[in-house]
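Table S7 (text form). Paired inputs.
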Amino acid sequence: MYHDILVPIDISEPALTQLVVSHVETQALLTDVARVHFLTVLPAFPYYASLGLAYSAEAPDKERIRSEALSQLSETANKFNIPKDRIELHIATGSPKDGILELAATIHADLIIIASHRPSITTYLLGSNASAVVRHAKCSVLVVR
């Protein structure tokens, strides 16, 4: 079946993560060779500026933020019933859809399992990140709501 499964995780939205748990476990355990790549994408520095941090004397400590994100991602991955030797953790920076698509290409993902927010009138059917991933991914994408 699948050898490399990419699971984007929004560490600030645990409810979305809960939606994908059973799907990821099922797909990962279909074979004994599937690797599950958990990814979280951190916003780029200009995003912090938009939050008013541009007025502070110091820029945010990017390494500390990255380390905390990796720790949270590790805690999240541990909630999945998947052998630890088949899990890989990844951190990217920038736009979520770009980070997801870039890592999918790098690891030659066979499947992306992504949770999607309930759509609003602005996104119509899918969240904007899930929609972009579905449109541009070169592999199968399972969108979970």
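Next pair, protein 2 of 2.
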Amino acid sequence: MLDRLNQTLEHIEHRLDGSVDVAELARLAATSEYHLRRMFSALAGMPLSEYVRRRRLTVAGAEVLAGRESLLDIAVRYGYGSGEAFARAFRSMHGVGPGEARRTGAPLVSQPRLSFRLTVEGSSSMRYRVVDRPDFTVVGLKARVPLVHAGPNQAIIDFVRGIDPQVSERLEKLSDQEPRGIVAVCDDLDPSRAEGTELDYVHGVITSADPPEGTTVLPVPAGTWAVFTTSGPAPRAIQELWRDVYAQWFPSTPYRARPGPEILRTRLSPDGTEADAELWLPVEREQN
């Protein structure tokens, strides 16, 4: 999988002055657009679209400083419809406009070319299982929150703290399917998975019971799920588990991510510093 991802990076380099078609990149990577975006974001730490934008502006910046072509010609070549649009994008990355950069030779920001490599440490093994599930229903309370890659998500903390404990207790009693108990469900994530993009967060249970009044109902179709478990400091262990699934597990297995909610069941220690967690991700086998 990593070899195919590196082929897509090479393809991007040859298309910086043209159109970069994500469908074509997914074909080169022999996977779906959805999985490619998820994989790239997890491995690179930035959305695929952001990487392409930053590489274009890096190459364009070098041409601006070289001074051989007009700024408008450079802007058009790299996909900007006007000099003003190019100047805004250029300033957002480099902190200086293209005209001033050319006049003063100001230092610019560079986005290096990426190359993916698998590092095998062997310090621990990943605990997982793959299960096929019939359709099921999540019932709970929903909020729209920003995505946070590292550290506590204050929006989620505030939302959960605002839920009446008696409501949570009533919900927990409805749980009758795996993963049992109160779960955190993330759905409708932006494909880029960029920091700060919004998602639906559901604090609820998986149940066949009738939903209580005032709750959100999320139907989940039948499919295959990869289930991962971890223990460690909260929330770091959970965030590192998600990272390792995309950086290590997906590249070494015949599975890819498919659209669907991500489900997390967490059990915290009495002081809230340690967590035992089970992460359910919707997956499908890669097509040969």
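Residues 48-66 form the longest helix (19 residues).
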